[in-house]
Amino acid sequence: MLSDYKIKKILDLLEDEYPMADCALEHRNVYELLVAVTLSAQTTDVSVNRVSGELFEKYPSPEALAGARPEDVEKVIKPTGMYKTKAANIIKQAQMLVDDFGGNVPEDDRLLQKLPGVGRKTANVVMSVGFGHQRIAVDTHVFRVAARIGLAEKKNVLDTEETLMEILPKKRWTRTHHSLIFHGRNCCTARNPGCERCCIRRYCEKNGV
Question: Is the pLDDT score of 173 beyond 50?
């Protein structure tokens, strides 16, 4: 396990390397964020951003989306993949928001996970990006990078999340989540990682000196 000193150095260096690291999904409010994160399952943020503008123009509120026809929503979000399931989920989400929460996205992890298509990762993103709480959402990039560099060598995302929460200062959870994602996209890729240009190579358990 990495020492506290190495962990701090890694966090500091990643923040220096990616000072603008933040949520890449385009949204104007928590409702749009929730829908965008739901659509991002098994696809890229770029793909979601290509369709979200048209989607939110047609359905600017939970009330509007709640009454949408699935086939109309499917046409808009088709490029994101799994579009039939995703369309059904975001429509049902909107209906629940209207019926159970007065049209508002609940600021509560457990309530968020009761919404169709919302798991732990999505709830964490909404809580951190949408409401400003410190959270660590473990996606494929966070899972891979955390294991590879020695922060959390676990076999599943839940254990990875719990380990990161234990070893990282809470005030840095959200920022570290974004930094790890950016590092996973830009350097520590799944195939052919750019170890020779890695800003944290010195402290990486795989390539450290």
Answer: yes
Strand, helix or coil for residue 70: helix
Tokens of 18: 């990616």
Question: Which residues carry out catalysis?
Answer: 121, 139
User: What tokens does 141 get?
Assistant: 């990039």
Q: Contact, 86 vs 51, CB < 8 A?
A: no
What pLDDT, in 10s, does the model give residues 42-75?
A: 999 999 999 999 999 999 999 999 999 999 999 9
**Alpha-helical regions (H) of 67-136:** 70-77, 83-101, 109-112, 120-125
Print burial letters for 118-138: b (CB count within 10 Å at least 16), e (below 16): bebbbbbbbbbbbeeebbbbb
Confidence band of 208 (pLDDT split at 50, 70, 90): low
Q: In sequence order, what are the residues at sequence separation of 6 or more whose Cβ sits closer than 8 angstroms to the Cβ of residue 161? A: 120, 124, 136, 137, 138
Single-letter residue type at 145? V
